[in-house]
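FAQ: What does the model actually see?

It sees only this:
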Amino acid sequence: MLSAKDLARELSSYADNEKAALLRRFFKTGKGEYGEGDTFLGIVVPAQRRIAKKYLHLNCNDLMPLLKSKIHEYRFSVLVILVEKYRHGTKKEKETIAKFYLRNRQHINNWDLVDTSTPQIIGDYLLTHDTHILSTLARSRNLWDRRIAVLATFPFIKEGRYTETTHVAQLLLADTHDLIHKAVGWALREVGKKSLQTEEAFLKKYAHCMPRTMLRYAIERFPLHKRVKYLNI
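And it is asked to produce this:
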Protein backbone atom coordinates (compact mmCIF):
# COMPACT_ATOMS: atom_id res chain seq x y z
CA MET A 1 0.00 0.00 0.00
CA LEU A 2 1.27 3.48 -0.85
CA SER A 3 2.80 5.37 2.08
CA ALA A 4 3.42 9.00 2.98
CA LYS A 5 7.00 8.53 1.82
CA ASP A 6 5.65 7.40 -1.55
CA LEU A 7 3.55 10.56 -1.69
CA ALA A 8 6.62 12.69 -0.98
CA ARG A 9 8.65 10.88 -3.64
CA GLU A 10 5.90 11.21 -6.24
CA LEU A 11 5.44 14.90 -5.56
CA SER A 12 9.19 15.48 -5.70
CA SER A 13 9.36 13.82 -9.11
CA TYR A 14 7.33 16.74 -10.48
CA ALA A 15 9.74 19.39 -9.16
CA ASP A 16 10.43 22.31 -11.49
CA ASN A 17 13.12 24.75 -10.42
CA GLU A 18 11.88 27.54 -12.67
CA LYS A 19 8.33 27.34 -11.34
CA ALA A 20 9.68 27.04 -7.80
CA ALA A 21 11.49 30.36 -8.18
CA LEU A 22 8.28 32.02 -9.39
CA LEU A 23 6.29 30.56 -6.49
CA ARG A 24 8.83 31.73 -3.93
CA ARG A 25 8.31 35.28 -5.17
CA PHE A 26 4.52 34.94 -5.47
CA PHE A 27 4.13 33.61 -1.93
CA LYS A 28 6.47 36.21 -0.43
CA THR A 29 9.15 33.93 1.00
CA GLY A 30 11.82 36.60 1.36
CA LYS A 31 13.26 37.78 4.66
CA GLY A 32 10.62 39.62 6.67
CA GLU A 33 7.80 38.64 4.29
CA TYR A 34 4.77 36.64 5.38
CA GLY A 35 6.00 33.41 3.77
CA GLU A 36 9.60 33.71 4.94
CA GLY A 37 11.38 30.36 4.85
CA ASP A 38 8.72 28.51 2.86
CA THR A 39 10.25 26.04 0.39
CA PHE A 40 8.74 25.22 -3.00
CA LEU A 41 9.28 22.36 -5.42
CA GLY A 42 7.44 24.15 -8.25
CA ILE A 43 4.49 21.77 -8.70
CA VAL A 44 1.27 23.12 -10.22
CA VAL A 45 -1.90 22.72 -8.13
CA PRO A 46 -3.77 20.39 -10.56
CA ALA A 47 -0.88 17.92 -10.39
CA GLN A 48 -0.85 18.07 -6.59
CA ARG A 49 -4.57 17.40 -6.43
CA ARG A 50 -4.33 14.53 -8.90
CA ILE A 51 -1.53 12.88 -6.95
CA ALA A 52 -3.18 13.45 -3.57
CA LYS A 53 -6.29 11.48 -4.60
CA LYS A 54 -4.19 8.30 -4.66
CA TYR A 55 -3.35 8.68 -0.96
CA LEU A 56 -6.74 9.14 0.67
CA HIS A 57 -6.18 5.98 2.73
CA LEU A 58 -3.47 7.72 4.79
CA ASN A 59 -4.54 8.78 8.28
CA CYS A 60 -3.58 11.86 10.28
CA ASN A 61 -0.61 10.18 11.93
CA ASP A 62 0.67 9.02 8.54
CA LEU A 63 0.40 12.55 7.18
CA MET A 64 1.94 14.38 10.13
CA PRO A 65 5.57 14.31 8.85
CA LEU A 66 4.53 15.89 5.55
CA LEU A 67 2.35 18.49 7.26
CA LYS A 68 5.38 19.47 9.36
CA SER A 69 7.63 19.67 6.31
CA LYS A 70 9.08 22.98 5.12
CA ILE A 71 8.08 21.98 1.58
CA HIS A 72 4.92 23.86 0.68
CA GLU A 73 3.57 21.30 -1.79
CA TYR A 74 3.79 18.54 0.82
CA ARG A 75 1.66 20.58 3.22
CA PHE A 76 -0.77 21.58 0.49
CA SER A 77 -1.24 17.96 -0.61
CA VAL A 78 -1.84 16.85 2.98
CA LEU A 79 -4.59 19.43 3.27
CA VAL A 80 -6.16 18.29 0.00
CA ILE A 81 -6.25 14.77 1.44
CA LEU A 82 -7.71 15.94 4.75
CA VAL A 83 -10.45 17.92 3.00
CA GLU A 84 -11.48 14.87 0.98
CA LYS A 85 -11.34 12.57 4.01
CA TYR A 86 -13.41 15.06 6.01
CA ARG A 87 -15.99 15.44 3.24
CA HIS A 88 -16.64 11.71 3.12
CA GLY A 89 -15.98 10.89 6.76
CA THR A 90 -18.27 9.79 9.55
CA LYS A 91 -19.16 12.20 12.34
CA LYS A 92 -16.37 10.75 14.47
CA GLU A 93 -13.84 10.90 11.62
CA LYS A 94 -14.74 14.52 10.92
CA GLU A 95 -14.19 15.43 14.55
CA THR A 96 -10.81 13.69 14.54
CA ILE A 97 -9.71 15.60 11.43
CA ALA A 98 -10.98 18.96 12.70
CA LYS A 99 -9.18 18.57 16.03
CA PHE A 100 -6.00 17.41 14.28
CA TYR A 101 -6.21 20.47 12.03
CA LEU A 102 -6.55 22.89 14.92
CA ARG A 103 -3.78 21.24 16.96
CA ASN A 104 -1.39 21.50 14.02
CA ARG A 105 -2.48 24.76 12.45
CA GLN A 106 1.00 26.27 12.93
CA HIS A 107 1.90 24.30 9.80
CA ILE A 108 -1.04 25.78 7.85
CA ASN A 109 0.93 28.92 7.30
CA ASN A 110 0.24 30.53 3.97
CA TRP A 111 -2.92 31.98 2.50
CA ASP A 112 -3.50 29.23 -0.08
CA LEU A 113 -3.16 26.54 2.61
CA VAL A 114 -5.77 28.29 4.75
CA ASP A 115 -8.14 29.12 1.92
CA THR A 116 -8.14 25.64 0.41
CA SER A 117 -8.93 23.86 3.67
CA THR A 118 -10.33 26.01 6.47
CA PRO A 119 -13.90 26.51 5.17
CA GLN A 120 -14.24 22.84 4.23
CA ILE A 121 -12.95 21.49 7.55
CA ILE A 122 -13.09 24.00 10.41
CA GLY A 123 -15.95 26.06 8.98
CA ASP A 124 -18.10 23.00 8.42
CA TYR A 125 -17.20 21.51 11.80
CA LEU A 126 -18.10 24.68 13.69
CA LEU A 127 -21.56 24.80 12.12
CA THR A 128 -22.59 22.23 14.72
CA HIS A 129 -20.13 23.04 17.51
CA ASP A 130 -19.22 25.87 19.87
CA THR A 131 -17.85 28.79 17.87
CA HIS A 132 -15.95 30.47 20.72
CA ILE A 133 -12.67 29.50 19.06
CA LEU A 134 -13.37 32.01 16.28
CA SER A 135 -12.86 34.85 18.76
CA THR A 136 -9.69 33.24 20.07
CA LEU A 137 -8.29 32.85 16.57
CA ALA A 138 -9.30 36.38 15.53
CA ARG A 139 -7.45 37.80 18.54
CA SER A 140 -4.32 35.73 17.91
CA ARG A 141 -1.00 37.41 17.18
CA ASN A 142 -0.49 34.81 14.47
CA LEU A 143 -1.48 36.03 11.00
CA TRP A 144 -2.70 32.62 9.83
CA ASP A 145 -4.85 32.06 12.92
CA ARG A 146 -6.60 35.31 12.11
CA ARG A 147 -7.12 34.33 8.48
CA ILE A 148 -8.45 30.94 9.61
CA ALA A 149 -10.97 32.80 11.79
CA VAL A 150 -12.27 34.70 8.76
CA LEU A 151 -12.33 31.79 6.32
CA ALA A 152 -14.04 29.53 8.85
CA THR A 153 -17.12 31.74 8.68
CA PHE A 154 -17.79 31.15 4.98
CA PRO A 155 -19.95 28.04 5.51
CA PHE A 156 -22.03 30.08 7.99
CA ILE A 157 -22.67 32.65 5.26
CA LYS A 158 -23.86 29.89 2.93
CA GLU A 159 -26.27 28.77 5.65
CA GLY A 160 -27.67 32.28 6.04
CA ARG A 161 -25.88 32.83 9.37
CA TYR A 162 -24.05 36.14 9.38
CA THR A 163 -23.36 36.88 13.04
CA GLU A 164 -20.15 34.83 13.06
CA THR A 165 -18.74 36.75 10.08
CA THR A 166 -19.66 40.19 11.33
CA HIS A 167 -18.31 39.37 14.79
CA VAL A 168 -14.94 38.26 13.43
CA ALA A 169 -14.88 41.23 11.05
CA GLN A 170 -15.47 43.63 13.94
CA LEU A 171 -12.61 42.05 15.91
CA LEU A 172 -10.28 42.53 12.95
CA LEU A 173 -11.10 46.14 12.05
CA ALA A 174 -7.83 47.35 13.51
CA ASP A 175 -5.71 44.59 11.98
CA THR A 176 -2.66 45.89 10.19
CA HIS A 177 -2.04 43.11 7.66
CA ASP A 178 -3.18 43.39 4.06
CA LEU A 179 -4.02 39.67 3.88
CA ILE A 180 -6.52 40.12 6.70
CA HIS A 181 -7.97 43.26 5.14
CA LYS A 182 -8.59 41.33 1.93
CA ALA A 183 -10.06 38.30 3.71
CA VAL A 184 -12.47 40.34 5.83
CA GLY A 185 -13.56 42.43 2.86
CA TRP A 186 -14.10 39.25 0.85
CA ALA A 187 -16.19 37.74 3.64
CA LEU A 188 -18.33 40.86 3.97
CA ARG A 189 -18.85 40.88 0.20
CA GLU A 190 -20.09 37.28 0.43
CA VAL A 191 -22.48 38.31 3.19
CA GLY A 192 -23.78 41.04 0.91
CA LYS A 193 -24.52 38.54 -1.83
CA LYS A 194 -26.91 36.75 0.53
CA SER A 195 -28.08 39.68 2.66
CA LEU A 196 -27.26 43.16 1.45
CA GLN A 197 -29.12 44.55 4.44
CA THR A 198 -26.72 42.80 6.83
CA GLU A 199 -23.62 43.97 5.00
CA GLU A 200 -24.83 47.55 4.78
CA ALA A 201 -25.75 47.59 8.46
CA PHE A 202 -22.16 46.62 9.22
CA LEU A 203 -20.74 49.18 6.80
CA LYS A 204 -22.89 52.01 8.14
CA LYS A 205 -21.47 51.30 11.58
CA TYR A 206 -17.83 50.64 10.71
CA ALA A 207 -16.99 51.93 7.20
CA HIS A 208 -15.43 55.08 8.64
CA CYS A 209 -12.78 53.05 10.51
CA MET A 210 -12.25 50.16 8.09
CA PRO A 211 -8.87 49.84 6.34
CA ARG A 212 -9.32 50.99 2.75
CA THR A 213 -8.45 47.62 1.21
CA MET A 214 -10.99 45.91 3.45
CA LEU A 215 -13.65 48.44 2.49
CA ARG A 216 -12.86 48.27 -1.23
CA TYR A 217 -13.19 44.48 -1.22
CA ALA A 218 -16.44 44.66 0.75
CA ILE A 219 -18.11 47.11 -1.65
CA GLU A 220 -16.65 45.72 -4.86
CA ARG A 221 -20.04 44.62 -6.22
CA PHE A 222 -21.87 47.81 -5.30
CA PRO A 223 -23.00 50.30 -7.98
CA LEU A 224 -20.48 53.07 -8.60
CA HIS A 225 -22.46 55.77 -6.81
CA LYS A 226 -22.74 53.63 -3.69
CA ARG A 227 -19.04 52.74 -3.75
CA VAL A 228 -18.19 56.42 -3.98
CA LYS A 229 -20.46 57.18 -1.04
CA TYR A 230 -18.78 54.63 1.23
CA LEU A 231 -15.28 55.58 0.12
CA ASN A 232 -16.02 59.19 1.03
CA ILE A 233 -17.26 58.44 4.53
